[in-house]
Each structure stands twice: as C-alpha cells, then as structure tokens.
Fold:
Amino acid sequence: MLFLSVLSFGANAALVDRGSGLIYDDVLDITWLQDANYAKTSGFELVINSNGQMNWDNATAWAGGLSYNGYDDWRLPITADPDPNCELHPSEPGGLGCTGSEMGHLFYSDGISESNPGVFVNISIGEGYWSETEYSPYPFPFVTAFAFNPYNGDQSWALKSNNYFAWAVSDGDIASVVPIPAAVYLFASGLGLLG
Structure:
C-alpha cells in the first residue's frame, strides 16, 4: 500500500529534481535551474551588485549565453500578457494571482516562494526576478519588462534599467534527453533480447 501511495505521489508531482542542479516542471514542460541566483553563484561579470542583481539587458544576455552542464538553451521566465488571472493594480496589468506566468505558476501552483523554497536554493530575499517578456505601456515604449516577486507573489512591470535577479529556465525536460550513443546501445540491446 505504501508503495502505491509513493507511485501516485510521483505521478502527480509538478516539480521533479533531475539532479545536477536541474528541476523539471512537468506541468509547464520546462526545466529550471535549481539555484535561483546562479548568476551570482557563477560569478557572472555583469551582475551589478553583491546580491546578484542586474538590469534587464544584462539578465537576458546572461540567460541567453548560459551554458550549464552541457545545456545552452536557457532564457528568462515568460509572463503571459494579458493574464486574466491577475488581480490588477489600477494602472498596470499585474498584481497578485498571476498564474499565467511561469514564475506565477511556480509561486501559486507549486507553492515555491522566498519563505518556502522547496527543492530550490538561493531564492532572493524581498526582491523581484526579471521576466523575458517586455511590456510597452504608454508613454514608455519597450523600456519596461515584467518582474515577479517571490516574497508576496506580486507581478508588475519595471524599467529595464532597474536591478532585479535573473533565474534561468529552459524549454522541455532537458535532463531526460538520452545521448544518441546510449540510445543506440539500448535499442540494440532490446533487439538482442527480442531475438
């Protein structure tokens, strides 16, 4: 009975620790870096301050140029615009309850926050994370982008010149990709067993 309950728990899990610092979200089909402040941990030279924050241009450059354990297809999290789930601030598309963004899903659906990091490490204290998604409100065309605060779940837009944290994510379950030589060996072994 205990075995079956473990199986059912694993089947419903949204976050899967793939090891090597990779966390797979099987609902959104994306892989997060386990270290939510890897830009600082890795010593990225464009980090603006000792906390690991940087402006939006540097954050997108860091994520786009990141190579981690042989994987090099990284980006910042995406924000849905518009997100009908947001409890809107009077003057901006954001607020609380924004589950349409990848960070919002992590906070509201998976329960990951500054005070409850779960399987993650180095989640920022009281500050926001950049989104890859730009926002162009009048009169600020394309000088703003979305940010998300894991302290209280607030999503808002900010000037790209502000300094926030950057958290890398990649599409798909990158840690489950079997290298071609191993896949060929497994296929050949299976054929041998069938014979």
Strands lie at 15-19, 22-25, 30-33, 87-89, 92-96, 129-135, 144-149, 154-159, 169-171.
